[in-house]
Amino acid sequence: MNLFEYEGKQLMRDYGIPVPESHLITCENEPAPMAYPFVLKAQVMTGGRGKAGGVKVCRDEADYRKYSHDILNMEIKGHKVHGLLAEQMMKAEKELYLSITLQGVAKPTLIASRMGGMDIEAVSRENPEEIIRMEIDPFTGLKGYQLKYLAKRLRVEDEKDLCSMVQKVQHAFFQAGALLVEINPLGLVDGKLVAMDSKFVIDGNARHMRAKMEELESGRQNLHAYKAPEKEATTITYVPLDGDLGLISDGAGTGMLTLDLLNDAGGHVASFCELGGMTSAEVMYRAMDLTLTGHPEVKGVIIVLIGGFNRMDNMACGITRYVEEHDVKIPIFTRMCGTMEEVGLETMKKAGMPTYSILTDTVKEFVEQVEGGAEKCQS
């Protein structure tokens, strides 16, 4: 479950992580919730809101009225804004990046950088030496020597405060059954670290968090123009990420391998969609819909299928029907093998859609074509 910023920060408060004072606003007629000046931040399930005009400083009533109206009625990367977070202004003396993730990695991994407040993927590409990665033993957590090393690399003078912050984020990650807890920026304000932004993704399969997820979903009914997602009657697992490449696979192992290959090739994945279990043409169609509908940032999709119980003729029918009905124009790279493979490949061929046999070559060509800006029409 991907959380809005206001939800993530509430969870952070619950786990003792310092966050700024804030108030949720769901309609433009609400009175200003705090003294001016304050920051007004769009609550939307995508990144890039600052560049899109979704973050504004309100210095007086006129600013508040204008910005609350404008932001609540905008779309950012095809996503509707469902609320506003009014937050106290804080001037950070230093901005860091801190996250713990299970997305695209084999073990829980801490990622940190002293170059916070920026796109972390851009930092990784342009200044890879500024990225710190540490695998976390889920039984023991980060060791003391790792925390000391982290403080040194981040150039944080108050080592005790940093250790406290990291341990609280680590505790929140494991206790909440998270796939991602990200703070960008982690600000140094008056000598103390504060989570100035929040990205929080809870594993939808975390049983101990079901009641909490239901509570969060119930609270969303009061948001602006919010429609609850339809419950899936399938085994599909969909995880949103921050890149521009869609990934669909019929197994977690295959999907994670492909995700690693994409990252190694310089690709940036927008979402990971795993079909799971016994699937059908309808499940494949739904996976395509989850990956593409409402996600204009996706510039291409790679589909990796290994048919044991699942039939490749059914998978091909789901893919081609979706592409035809939605007039998909972005590149779709498909690698399929296994049960009814010949029929599936023939279906794809008749639809004018290329297929590939070697996974590493498929990934390399896919990233080169899509990230290189080429556009391939499907018909």
TrEMBL record:
- InterPro entries for the chain: ATP-grasp, ATP-grasp_succ-CoA_synth-type, ATP_grasp_subdomain_1, SUCC_ACL_C, Succ_CoA_ligase-like_bsu, Succinyl-CoA_synth-like
| Entry's Gene Ontology molecular function annotations | ATP binding; metal ion binding; succinate-CoA ligase (ADP-forming) activity
Any one Pfam family here would be ATP-grasp_2
Which residues does UniProt call coiled coil?
none
Domain ATP-grasp span(s) in chain numbering? 9-213
Keywords noted in UniProt: ATP-binding, Ligase, Magnesium, Metal-binding, Nucleotide-binding, Tricarboxylic acid cycle
GO terms (BP aspect): succinyl-CoA metabolic process; tricarboxylic acid cycle
| Cellular component terms per the entry's GO annotation | succinate-CoA ligase complex
Protein's UniProt name: Acetate--CoA ligase family protein
Source organism: Wansuia hejianensis
